[in-house]
């Protein structure tokens, strides 16, 4: 009787098929319903590292395997972009089940300090701005975006800034635009 592995090996030899395994590792830094970082790493793939800054998370410690549309887009293109690790951080840390209204979004000093520290110690990491134009009329959101751009422009990482957007966020940085 053939077991699962021996059957798979027999089938692969018979039909000249190949088998490949690749592992996407997810790590989440969170506290309660606040997520500060979601790290995605392709195990065994050599590439660059990046910090992606989005708007708000949908993943916390209780649903670490959940993937929102931004993460899915990023995961689908990590190899194409030459990335083996992405640290995802968001301007807002509170996790919502649905897209939050502007009144639900509040400034989180601890989260912004976490992002600023990551930017200031980015080393070889590329910085990818991917917060888009959502909530563009919200004063808190605009203040966070402005403060983030100032923090980046004062960091050593300012020459490694990219954006995922259909329009340029700032001409201060030398990175490319990564179109969605």
Description:
The protein has helices spanning 4-15, 69-77, 109-120, 139-153; strands at 23-31, 34-43, 48-54, 83-90, 126-129, 161-164, 177-178. The model is unreliable at 176-180 (pLDDT under 50). The chain has a seven-stranded mixed β-sheet, with helices on both faces. It is an alpha/beta fold.
SSE topology:
Blueprint: H1 4-15, E1 23-31, E2 34-43, E3 48-54, H2 69-77, E4 83-90, H3 109-120, E5 126-129, H4 139-153, E6 161-164, E7 177-178
Parallel strand pairs: 3-4, 3-5, 5-6, 6-7
Antiparallel strand pairs: 1-2, 2-4
Key words describing this protein structure:
180 residues, alpha/beta, 7-stranded mixed sheet, elongated
Task: Give a nutshell description of this structure.
The chain has 180 residues and is α/β, with parallel strands linked by helices. It contains four helices and seven strands, in the order αβββαβαβαββ.
Instruction: Give start-end ranges of low-pLDDT stretches.
Output: 176-180
Q: Helix coverage percent of residues?
A: 25-40%
Helical run tally: 4
- SSE order, one letter for each helix or strand: HEEEHEHEHEE
> Which secondary-structure class do the elements indicate?
alpha/beta
Please state the overall shape, judged from the principal axes of the Cα atoms: elongated
Strand order in the sheet with the most strands: 1-2-4-3-5-6-7
Query: What would the average pLDDT be, to the nearest integer?
Result: 84
Number of strands: 7
**Over the alpha carbons, how many angstroms does the gyration radius reach?**
19 Å
Proportion in β-strands: 15-25%
Distance between the termini: 50 Å
Q: Major sheet: size, sense and barrel closure? A: 7 strands, mixed
């Amino acid at each position: 009787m053939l077991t699962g592995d021996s059957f798979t090996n027999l089938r692969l030899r018979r039909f000249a098929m190949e088998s490949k395994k690749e592992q996407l590792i997810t790590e989440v830094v969170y506290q309660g319903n606040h997520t500060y970082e979601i790290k995605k790493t392709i195990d065994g793939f050599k590439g660059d590292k990046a910090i992606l800054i989005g708007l708000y998370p949908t993943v916390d410690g209780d649903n670490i395997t959940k993937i929102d549309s931004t993460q899915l887009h990023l995961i689908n293109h990590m190899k194409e972009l030459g990335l083996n690790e992405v640290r995802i951080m968001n301007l807002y840390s509170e996790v919502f089940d649905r897209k939050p209204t502007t009144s639900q979004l509040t400034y989180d000093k601890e989260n912004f300090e976490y992002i600023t520290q990551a930017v200031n110690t980015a080393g070889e990491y590329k910085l990818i701005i991917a917060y888009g134009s959502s909530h563009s009329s919200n004063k808190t959101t605009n203040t966070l975006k402005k403060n983030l751009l100032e923090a980046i422009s004062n960091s050593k990482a300012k020459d490694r800034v990219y954006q995922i957007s259909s329009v340029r966020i700032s001409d201060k940085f030398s990175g490319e635009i990564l179109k969605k």
